[in-house]
Write a structure and sequence with these properties.
Blueprint: H1 11-22, H2 31-38, H3 41-68, H4 75-83, H5 85-116, H6 123-142, H7 145-173, H8 191-206, H9 211-214, H10 222-251, H11 254-259, H12 263-269, H13 275-297, H14 299-307, H15 326-341, H16 343-353, H17 356-375, H18 388-407, H19 409-429
Helix pairs in contact: 1-7, 1-10, 1-13, 2-3, 2-8, 3-8, 3-10, 3-17, 3-18, 4-5, 4-17, 5-6, 5-13, 5-14, 5-15, 5-16, 5-19, 6-7, 6-13, 6-15, 7-10, 7-13, 10-12, 12-13, 14-15, 15-16, 16-19, 17-18, 18-19
Length: 433
């Protein structure tokens, strides 16, 4: 045990956390906008491959960090050890208030919308189904980290099998397509501009593999398994995304792919009469599984914040029987339910500030340079190609954040406001020496 948490998670389970945190509903929908911006199969696949480079360089960087600090909270711990409690708290604050809780609310609503295509539901009915999905995964994760691991593994495996089915059908039954630059979206002034716009959707789809680090304290032989899980997870996600897009391109002309509102359903439906129904079920399974993973992983950050004396002490208490951070889980799920109920009020706010997650990923990656300078390179896992590999991740991520902020300056404004709002909470909730 570490800090009262039980070490129950193995390599397969943690890898499925890394994979399932990335693969939600995005790969079934976002490829259409990317095809619209780029318009040519070569550049579409190149964009997804570049996203894989970011994921792999990031996972290699975080693998060394995870090897050095196999503690609950993962990224929170790396930032804390390198830059102090305040910056670590602000990361946890953003994860709780918007990034992960908002993602749970959005995913639960997406889950309910797809369920409503199978069982007719009005808006209130979808809210009820979404809330029930959050309540279900909350119960599972309170009852034990091993149960949460099993849930994550089963649902992530199912979504991988479903995507593999699309890939096999696409390669076997589809025909290679070529495309001209699409007119569905306004043509960007330059190829670089088009590629940058496409990369926004790609990088959002790749975010999440670092959730495996949050569960370090509950992983057996964490110093060895956490790095492996993040790296293997990033590789699996990259292969999955690239092959899925190859399948889409073989099943749909690029122009049709760009115009589609549900590219996976339209692609599969082109050769399989029940393709739309299959994809609907697959997306429902995928989103439900990701809700469960987020409910399992992120509360370990708030738990560690409270143990550090930088958050309300109630949040540091464990379930007396199951040794799970029950109050941290309930806090996140409760706030996600509020966001779900009042989704129309918070939807734009969440879209504006979620890019802050990448800002903190950059900060965490920079922490590796701090630790190399202070602690040296004496660790059982070292980033291959240091410092080039972490610099690739940092440079591309900085470019992404800058480009997003220039294109949508409201994000920088709301993100800064969210950080400022966290300051009084930090001062009020921390222990006095």
């Amino acid at each position: 045990m570490a800090g009262g948490l039980k070490k129950k998670i193995g390599l397969y389970g943690l890898t499925m956390v890394a994979v399932g945190s990335c693969i939600g509903s995005g790969i079934f929908i976002t490829p259409s906008s990317i095809a619209g911006h780029l318009g040519e199969p070569f550049w579409i696949i190149a964009a997804w491959l570049l996203g894989g480079v970011v994921a792999l360089t990031g996972s290699l960087t975080f693998a060394e960090l995870g090897n050095r600090f196999p503690a609950a909270g993962g990224v929170y711990v790396y930032i804390r050890e390198a830059f102090g409690h305040l910056w670590a708290f602000l990361y946890g604050w953003c994860i709780l208030t918007v990034i992960t809780s908002g993602a749970i609310a959005a995913l639960s609503l997406t889950f309910a919308r797809y369920v409503s295509t199978l069982v007719p539901l009005d808006q209130n009915g979808m809210i009820v189904v979404g809330a029930a999905s959050i309540a279900a995964v909350t119960t599972i994760n309170v009852l034990g980290v091993k149960l949460g691991e099993i849930f994550s593994s089963v649902f992530t495996t199912l979504k991988l099998i479903g995507i593999a089915m699309i890939v096999v059908i696409g390669i076997a039954l589809g025909q290679a397509v070529s495309g001209e630059p699409s007119t569905v979206h306004d043509a960007p002034a330059t190829t670089m501009g088009a590629f940058a716009l496409a990369m926004i959707g790609v990088l959002w789809s790749f975010g999440g593999w670092h959730h495996a680090s949050y569960l370090s304290a509950e992983t057996r032989d964490a110093a060895r398994i956490v790095p492996r899980a993040m790296i293997i997870g990033a590789v699996i996600v990259t292969i999955t995304y690239v092959l899925a897009n190859v399948a889409y391109l073989r099943l749909l002309p690029v122009e049709d792919m760009a115009a589609s509102q549900a590219v996976a359903a339209d692609a599969l439906g082109a050769v399989v009469p029940t393709g739309g129904l299959i994809v609907t079920i697959l997306i429902a399974v995928s989103t439900f599984g990701t809700i469960g993973i987020f409910t399992m992983s992120a509360p370990r950050i708030y738990y560690t914040m409270a143990r550090d004396g930088r958050f309300f002490q109630l949040i540091s208490r464990l379930h007396p029987k199951h040794a799970t951070p029950v109050f941290a889980i309930l806090l996140q799920s409760g706030w996600a339910l509020i966001l779900l109920i009042f989704w129309g009020t918070f939807e734009s706010l969440i879209a504006y500030v979620v890019f802050m997650d990448w800002v903190f990923m950059i900060l965490a990656a920079f922490s590796l340079f701090v630790f190399r300078r202070k602690l040296g390179s004496a660790t059982s896992f070292r980033v291959p190609g240091y410092p080039v590999v972490p610099l690739i991740f940092i440079i591309i991520s900085i470019w992404f954040v800058i480009y997003t902020s220039i294109g949508q300056p409201q994000q920088a404004l709301w993100g800064t406001g969210l950080l400022v709002l966290g300051l009084p909470v930090y001062w009020l909730s921390q222990k006095r020496e």
